[in-house]
Amino acid sequence: MSRSKPTVLVSACLLGQPVRYDGRASGHPGLLQRWQAEGRVVPLCPEVAGGLPTPRPAAEIPGGQGAQVLDGTAQVLTLAADDVSAAFVAGARQALALVRRHAISIAVLKSGSPSCGNRLTYDGTFSGVKVPGEGVTTALLRREGVQVFSELELDAAERALALLDEPLIEPPSPQA
Ligand code: SF4
After folding, report:
1. Residue 13 CA: which ligand 1 atom is closest?
2. For ligand 1, is residue 12 a contact (CB within 6 Å)?
3. Which residue range is the domain that position 42 belongs to?
4. What is the pLDDT of residues 96-149, one digit of tens each?
5. How many independent structural domains does the chain possess?
6. Which member of 17, 85, 117, 128 lies 3.0 to 4.6 Å from 121 by CB, making a disulfide possible if both were Cys?
7. CA nearest ligand 1 atom 4, residue
8. How far is CA 22 from CA 48, 59, 114, in A?
9. What is the signed CA dihedral for 113, 117, 122, 126, rounded to 10 degrees?
10. Model confidence over 67-79: pLDDT tens digits?
């Protein structure tokens, strides 16, 4: 019996794609390059998928809680106070659709982002202050049960993926 290798949802900016708000990429770690070569990576930039252009104005969540944006109790705002929440939620839903389509249970998303951050996000004051919180996409994926790691936690992500790989090892055939 065989099945396809488990795949991982990865922030497109961590795969060398220049999709950040400032038109740049966020590096391309070697582990992610290897997973790409193995066909394990499903890339996505939720903000672009949600319809935002690149480059685009930086945006933050006052209070830093992506789950509140999903629930309609907080907004994602640019420095000019434009409400871009709808695009962020649309991008999160695209991520959710990909996760369901590919049966993904692990994601590696860019730290600190109002979409992708998994532990800290900016607090909405555009002063560089981070608070404990998660981005809109991360919040939605966690509600689906996806484990979300950042590029700062690649060792942990690799261990989690290895656990998913274990059932691929065929048990020895019983002796007749
Ligand atoms: Fe896109 Fe997420 Fe990277 Fe921002 S952090 S550029 S939303 S993939």
Report:
1. 3
2. yes
3. 8-165
4. 999 999 999 999 999 999 999 999 999 999 999 999 999 999 999 999 999 999
5. 1
6. 117
7. 20
8. 12, 11, 14
9. 0
10. 999 999 999 999 9
